[in-house]
Amino acid sequence: MNATGQPTTTVSADLETMRETVSALLNADGNPVLPEPSDMQVTVLTELLRGHLEVMIRETEAVTGRLPASIARYCALACAGEARGKLRAAPTAQPGGVIAYARRLARVLAALCDHYELMDSVAQEAGNSGPGWNVWAHRRHANRTEPHPVAVRALARILLARAFAQRD
Fold it and tell me: Which residues, in sequence order, are CB contacts of 22 under 8 Å at separation 6+?
């Protein structure tokens, strides 16, 4: 309920629908879909993208607001800010300006969807934390957080040198 006693309706993120809308303009690599949609289709897609972006900006900011400071959080918030800028912008009057604007909206929506999925699954991985420091990683990537290979080789050489020194 809002302040006037009216029931509030909240629109949650339907990532599948949003990604489907993006795919009408961009392929999986982020390149333009050919053949280009008609002018009427581009107009409809642009309005859909604008609506999706309004929802995703709000949802992304809500999810990131519950998380501690991290690089992933700041990247998601920066992307939300970029999306706000795209919504404030308007298509150029040049030929192809409307489709180019729609593609920019589609790219930022795809990025926001990615950030939203990652932020929704961000967790502190206790196995990757030590005294005095924490590693925050997406669950999808937590198993990939390993020491740098050069550092591992250096440590191996040090341990081997110590082992040989103790044998003598």
Answer: 49, 106, 109, 110, 113
